[in-house]
Amino acid sequence: MTWTSLAADAPSDWWHNTPTPGPDIDDPARFLSPVTERLLQRVATILAAPPTTRTISPHLHGAISALLATSYGYDAEHRIDPDEITWAYTHGGALHIIEHPDGSVTFTKHHREDCPFITSRGAQECDEDCYFPDPADVERAHGK
Ligand SMILES: [Zn+2]
């Protein structure tokens, strides 16, 4: 039992001023708080950082273009509002984008995370146990 993993990221004097862990230490928080405070500040900084820019492949860009064109027309323009993004995150399954060997791409929110279709990246069929309640039915059940 050591402090090593925490001490690796601690101010250097913390290592020398902290007693060896043991049952005789009645208030570990007194020694750990300065370190945990620093770790929490680091976590907050990481979480507050803007997301790193991700580039998408030309093939995936083409697939998104096709998704827009087949949904809204060949010259479509469609703006997605933040609340629509939130709604999509909270209804149905997580978005999965599966690029198949033949060049086709599947965009799906239909399957649960451990469905064979998802775990095999589209190589296996769905086991038909993927069910997400229709948002309209959920609202009706709650009397809206
Ligand atoms: Zn499924």
From TrEMBL:
Protein name: Uncharacterized protein
Organism: Saccharothrix violaceirubra
